[in-house]
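Is flavin mononucleotide placement plausible here? Inputs below.
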Amino acid sequence: MTNQSQQTGFLENIPVHLVSAGDYEQEARQRLSDPVWAQIAGGAGDELTLRKNRSAFDALDIIPRLLADFRQADTGVHLFGRRHKFPLLIAPIAHQQLLHPQGELATLAAANALETTFIASTLASTPLETIAAESEQPSWFQLYFQPTREQTLDLLQRAEAAGYEAIVVTLDAPISGLRNRVQRAGFTLPAHIPTPNTAGYKPPAPRNLAPGSSVILNGFMADAPRWEDLQWLREHCNLPLLAKGVLSPADAEQCRATGLDGIIVSNHGGRTLDGLPATIDVLPAIRAAVGNELPLLLDSGIRRGTDIFKALALGADAVLLGRPYLYALATAGALGVAHLLRILREELEIAMALSGRPDIRSIQPDAVTGS
Ligand SMILES: Cc1cc2nc3c(=O)[nH]c(=O)nc-3n(C[C@H](O)[C@H](O)[C@H](O)COP(=O)(O)O)c2cc1C
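Reply from A.M.:
I modeled the complex. Tokens:
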């Protein structure tokens, strides 16, 4: 094992000082090596977007209403015919065995306990079939387009056969972002962390580039997915299909026109292009562009129940939680993730109680100001 492999010595009881997602972040920082920390906590370039993901939420205030009727209070939301008890899902995150020997299965155990939907990454360190078999409520599968349509179709059909309930196709990372923090820390994926979902797929033959052409623009990007590929995926996908990584109203409209069933407004947690806007800042325009019916989810920067509240107010139907559950996983495995999910649930309930919004439908744009 190298110093980049997963650590041991996970907490078996939750100490009193861990009461928020921020506390788990600090605890995880003490427990992880510098390279692994850079890999999970870092963002692209100068991390402008990473910071903005937080400052944009912090800049919003909640306007409370008094004396509301809570006799029918409820945090439930309906997505694609299923009731979710709470408007929070587990974002797809690669290589979770980097943080805990049970990886995705530890996160999933917490999701099962809290009846929270888990979104399995294409790059999970656990086979998609194993995750589906261990899911006590249907999970969703996050799909990255593969080098060939045959491989993409194989992955899609494996996910459908395994019992996933929705497909999330991630569109914002045709190439990796320039993550300078990771480069400086010298992180590389340890050889013992597997990527079983794609291990059987032949890598693409290298493109013969004309002299003087760009490896990025004429090489990788020439083979990157296009709208016609999304259309093709729509035609072959028998499940609700969501696009992840949308930041512009025009792309949101085009996704809807392509027949997608939902959109995830995301900047990949600030890990792709530095300089992208905070998702909460573009959410109202995207909601306006697609109308009120299309399910809109949001991630990037969710750290508090009040952040979930603000996202719901500005047009999201639910949110995805990213890094914070990795920090909880690295601290206390499934117990830590379950504890964190419980914290966020309670924080949202308290925000609803003290702002006079008894259910998700009542959290409307008039509940926040400052956007
Ligand atoms: C270490 C790491 C790995 C990730 N892997 C994936 C992935 O495999 N697929 C994907 O669609 N998004 C991936 N994401 C992005 C998350 O799904 C999500 O958009 C992001 O973490 C949300 O921002 P937050 O971490 O600020 O909550 C990854 C994020 C991190 C931090």
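Short version: The chain has 13 helices and twelve strands.
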